[in-house]
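testing teh design pipeline on a random one, pls ignore if ur not involved
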């Protein structure tokens, strides 16, 4: 039977420089060692000549490694394949072949190959380490147990210590990283292994502690003046900490000392994009592509740049008190006209709110980018861990999905924008030193407190995690985002972080949340910051927080099963149109767990049942409760607006419909109705905005929008503008009676 690997096809390469990592496997053939030594010391030409001689070696694995080292990936691939096909038990060549796949970005194939090697040799430490390195790179939780398993087998494997240190650094566990690096160094000395990767992580640790890494950098460059991977690695940790500007400086150095380090060009390009530096980004992405055309991230980023003219850019001032800030919007041309006013409005309000709440003045213009195509947005977050799937903030640049990229009942773009704008502040207040959990926590907390859908909405997954005691100690909360250990942990960590902020607000007051934020200056850990702000040990903080959440969710924690049963009963009754039977269970479910506001929320069931039973007033109360808890389903809220109208509460209905623009802005019907309502209410400028949106959405039938704009402008005293739009209305629909009548009236008024 043919194995799966025999059928894999390695992508063709023109030429790829040997940006290989160090092969620590003691089974590496001795013939390669002198050449390796040249390579590790950056003696490029000597290394190349040395490897070239080995291309004719009698040993196939030596041939394969030599071909790989001189950049002939295709030949290396062919030889590895032959070796493996001729010998099913060739485990080391299989591991190296998988590494070759890794270098060419074919991660899932590499995982499969490592898996096959482990099937044949379940104890092979190097196959396990290969697999662990893929998991680590993808921020998957399996990485750690696998490395620990390897170390139990053999405590002297340098790569296992390096991987451990690297994950510790990514998760901010600096003392653990320190210890792992001590062990790695001991092994390197004992076995005379190149110390480059140990020194590199030492330099990273030094930087993470706010110190100066220069002595390590010097040692590395003395050993290998062309070791760009060191700068690339340092940049990686800066990017993890969302310090993109600092990463850019390091990546520039990486390509300076090693101009053919394509991965660093690619990373530099992506990073420059994050900073909004489009032209230089293109230069480095093109360089990366010239050397390594098969990196999906590079290809996608270049594709996005090719379509940059599909986006239109506007710049507007936002005034807050005596200060003026610039806001740049980058919206797709097909929807920019409709969206611009709403995006600008919400961005302005967020700047007003957060400037005041966090006592911080933005130092640079803010850019907000909305992508109708989720893949374009995905390019912006490529290779970043623990980041929301809807939006991301790189300092003063916010990138997110546009409302048109998702169904309107599943994506509240306004809340996402609010969340991201909070990141702009938490990042900039702390010069990007805020830990991930606190930045996410404040963003979630601000969605609950000040955003367009206020209300502490908490999903059942978080309740379940709380029940299973899966909330993390605050000092370790970052690890729940970076390398989750169970499915859904990232989402749970968002909720826990939001709840920690809520707890701080309730226990010590909102001011103290800001005080905690300001503790992060690059020199303090979460544990130290908690201690300094609240004068209690992190363990005591955790204990109080635990009591707080258990008290807040006591009802649902004690009666989770009952909540499920009642919700289910209510749902079934509604399906069978047995309205009266739905009321009691839905009411009980809401009482137990009011924070549940998803699409099948008992709040919505209760409202529907009550309405069907002709208890409209009670139905209105049910939907108002739902909304107060953070519910925002556009269909339900449109219905509520109708009910409020019928109950003579027109102005509340109007405000409710305005809020729909932050979930469902591309709905012409909403703009049309809203325009009329606002006109009736004498809110003329807002009415004008709605008719403008209607015009942008409804190009096939422009007359009603022009007519609406004409009336709004007339009320605002702009007679000339009004007349122009009446003529526009009549130009597209000459028999449009209301426009004819108004034009006549205006002519009469003039005489
Ligand atoms: Zn976030």
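output:
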């Amino acid at each position: 039977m043919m194995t799966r690997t025999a059928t894999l096809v390695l992508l063709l390469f023109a030429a790829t420089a040997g940006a290989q990592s160090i092969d620590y496997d003691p089974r590496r053939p001795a013939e390669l060692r002198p050449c390796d030594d040249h390579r590790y010391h950056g003696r490029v030409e000597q290394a190349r000549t040395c490897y070239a001689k080995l291309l004719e070696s009698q040993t196939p694995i030596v041939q394969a490694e030599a071909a790989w080292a001189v950049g002939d990936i295709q030949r290396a691939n062919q030889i590895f394949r032959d070796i493996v096909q001729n010998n099913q038990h060739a485990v080391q060549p299989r591991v190296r072949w998988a590494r070759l796949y890794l270098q060419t970005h074919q991660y899932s194939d590499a995982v499969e190959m490592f898996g096959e090697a482990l099937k044949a040799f379940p104890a092979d430490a190097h196959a396990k380490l290969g697999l662990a390195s893929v998991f680590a790179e993808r921020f998957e939780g399996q990485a750690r147990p696998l490395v620990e398993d390897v170390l139990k087998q053999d405590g002297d494997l340098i790569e296992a210590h390096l991987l451990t240190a690297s994950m510790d650094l990514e998760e901010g566990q600096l003392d653990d990283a320190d210890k792992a690096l001590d062990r790695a160094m001991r092994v390197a000395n004992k076995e005379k292994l190149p110390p480059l990767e140990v020194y590199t992580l030492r330099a990273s640790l030094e930087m993470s502690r706010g110190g100066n890494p220069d002595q390590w950098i010097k040692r590395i460059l003395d050993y290998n003046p062309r070791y760009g991977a060191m700068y690339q690695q340092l940049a990686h940790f800066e990017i993890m900490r969302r310090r993109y500007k600092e990463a850019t400086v390091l990546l520039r150095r990486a390509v300076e000392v090693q101009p053919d380090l394509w991965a660093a060009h690619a990373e530099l390009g992506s990073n420059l994009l994050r900073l909004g530096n489009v032209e230089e980004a293109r230069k480095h992405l093109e360089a990366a592509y010239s050397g390594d055309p098969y990196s999906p991230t590079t290809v996608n980023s270049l594709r996005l740049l090719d379509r940059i003219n599909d986006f239109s850019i506007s710049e507007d001032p936002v005034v807050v008190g005596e200060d003026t800030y610039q806001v740049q919007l980058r919206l797709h041309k097909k929807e920019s006209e409709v969206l611009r006013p709403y995006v600008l409005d919400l961005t302005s309000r967020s700047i007003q709110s957060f400037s005041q709440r966090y006592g911080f003045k933005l130092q640079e213009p803010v850019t907000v980018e909305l992508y109708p195509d989720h893949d374009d947005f995905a390019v912006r977050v490529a290779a970043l861990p623990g980041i929301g799937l809807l939006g991301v903030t790189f300092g003063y640049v916010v990138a997110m999905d546009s409302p048109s990229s998702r169904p309107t009942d599943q994506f509240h773009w306004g809340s996402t924008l609010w969340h991201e704008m909070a990141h702009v502040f938490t990042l900039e207040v702390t010069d990007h030193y805020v830990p991930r959990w606190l930045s996410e926590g404040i963003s979630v907390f601000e969605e609950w407190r000040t955003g367009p859908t206020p209300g502490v909405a908490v999903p059942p997954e978080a309740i379940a995690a709380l029940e299973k005691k899966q909330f993390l100690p605050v000092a370790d909360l970052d690890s729940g985002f970076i390398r989750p250990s169970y499915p859904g942990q990232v989402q749970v960590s968002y909720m826990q972080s939001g709840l920690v902020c809520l707890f701080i607000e309730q226990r010590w007051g909102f001011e103290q949340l800001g005080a905690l934020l300001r503790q992060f200056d690059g020199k303090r850990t979460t544990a130290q910051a908690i201690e300094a702000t609240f004068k209690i040990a992190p363990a005591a903080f955790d204990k109080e927080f635990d009591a707080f959440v258990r008290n807040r969710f006591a009802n649902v924690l004690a009666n989770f099963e009952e909540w499920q049963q009642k919700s289910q009963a209510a749902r079934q009754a509604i399906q069978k149109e047995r309205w009266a039977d739905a009321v009691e269970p839905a009411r009980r479910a809401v009482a137990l767990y009011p924070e549940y506001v998803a699409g099948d929320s008992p709040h919505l069931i209760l409202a529907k049942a009550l309405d069907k039973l002709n208890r409209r007033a009670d139905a209105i109360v049910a939907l108002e409760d739902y909304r107060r808890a953070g519910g925002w389903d556009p269909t339900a809220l449109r219905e509520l607006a109708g009910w409020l109208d019928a109950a003579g509460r027109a102005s509340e209905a109007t405000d409710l419909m305005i809020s729909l623009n932050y979930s469902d802005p591309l709905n012409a019907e909403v703009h049309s109705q809203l325009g009329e309502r606002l006109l009736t209410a004498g809110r003329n400028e807002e009415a004008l905005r709605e008719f403008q949106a209607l015009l942008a959405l409804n190009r096939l039938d422009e007359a009603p929008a022009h007519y609406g704009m004409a009336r709004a402008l007339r009320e605002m005293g702009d007679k000339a503008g009004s007349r122009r739009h009446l003529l526009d209305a009549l130009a597209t629909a000459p028999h449009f009676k209301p426009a004819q009548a108004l034009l006549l009236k205006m002519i009469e008024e003039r005489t």
